[in-house]
Design brief:
Elements: H1 10-20, H2 29-47, E1 50-51, E2 58-59, H3 62-66, E3 80-84, E4 93-98, H4 105-121, H5 131-136, E5 139-146, E6 149-158, E7 164-170, E8 184-191, E9 195-202, H6 211-224, E10 236-239, H7 243-252, H8 254-257, E11 261-265, H9 272-282
Parallel strand pairs: 9-10, 10-11
Antiparallel strand pairs: 1-2, 3-4, 4-5, 5-6, 6-9, 7-8, 7-11
């Protein structure tokens, strides 16, 4: 009944079974320990509370991984460059002007989100610049960009020569490494500033890199004109600065007014947009 067929050889059966039943490679104890250590490290990092370096919020667990407050700091729209920022990371810094031309709806929406971020980061605010004042040149809005990220903002306004102001003096200059804030003492009143710094803001991670100085210097050049000399420092006044702002103003005005002195003015609160913004914040 089995003529012409050959029985399989035993050695062939052994080879076939060896090929099909090859055992999987075993991991060593060191390798298994490394995998467990890595997963536990990731779980530990997700459970440790963190503080956002941009907005200062304290986040826990998965919130830190999903938090993206820097989306409001993106600026991918066309801008008018007016100066450079030498202290920017990777030498990609520049100072640009907004509002001198008609802005697109997307740019206006992004600017509204950016300004909300700035107001939440500052201890106090004086409203927002109106589009009409930006178009007319009465107000000037400058941004400090690092690539396409906003690192700082400056809002200045043109002042009349009869604007009431006074000179504030620091009782003690803020030295490096000092934890005490400078004390302000009002001095004699004066008049004559032509440029008022209404608001200045620098991102938390970009401070101490000369951006505030670059913004104010660029504003002096914009007010004076493209090929003219910058506006003198003694014609620049600052609006109701905080202790840190007064320290910066005094340092910036050191050559024109001596050490520890800065010119301070009170902005006029008369625009409808500003009144609405103040009412919204107080509601």
């Amino acid at each position: 009944a089995f003529q012409g067929s050959r029985p399989a050889r035993p050695e062939a059966q052994v080879m076939l079974s060896t090929t099909l039943r090859r055992p999987a490679p075993q991991r060593t104890k060191a390798q298994r320990g490394t995998v467990r250590t890595g997963s536990s490290t990731k779980q530990m990092l997700l459970s440790v509370p963190r503080q956002c370096r941009d907005c200062g919020l304290r986040l826990c667990g998965l919130e830190a991984a999903l938090h993206r407050c820097d989306a409001a700091l993106e600026w991918p729209f066309a801008v008018e460059a007016v100066a450079s920022w030498p202290g920017a990371p990777e030498k990609l810094g520049r100072v640009v002007r907004l509002g001198s031309g008609v802005m697109s709806p997307a740019a206006r929406e992004q600017l509204a989100g950016l300004w909300s971020f700035i107001e939440s980061d500052l201890s106090h605010g004086l409203g927002r610049p109106a589009s009409e004042s930006l178009l007319s040149g009465e107000s000037i809005l400058l941004l400090g960009l690092s690539g396409r990220k906003v690192a700082g903002a400056l809002w200045v306004e043109r002042l009349r020569g009869d604007t009431d102001c006074h000179e504030e003096r620091l009782a003690a200059e803020l030295h490096d490494g000092s934890s005490e804030a400078p004390m302000a003492a009002p001095s004699d009143s004066c008049a004559g500033p032509l440029l008022g710094v209404r608001l200045i803001w620098v991102r938390r991670g970009q401070r101490r890199r000369g951006l505030a100085t670059a913004l104010v210097s660029a504003a002096r050049q914009v007010v004076a004109g493209l090929h003219a000399k910058p506006l003198p420092v003694n014609l620049v006044a600052f609006s109701q600065p905080t202790d840190e702002g007064l320290a910066f103003a005094a340092k910036y005005s050191r050559e024109a007014r001596g050490g520890g002195r800065a010119l301070v003015y009170g902005p006029k609160i008369g625009s409808d947009a500003l009144c609405k913004a103040i009412a919204a914040r107080c509601a």
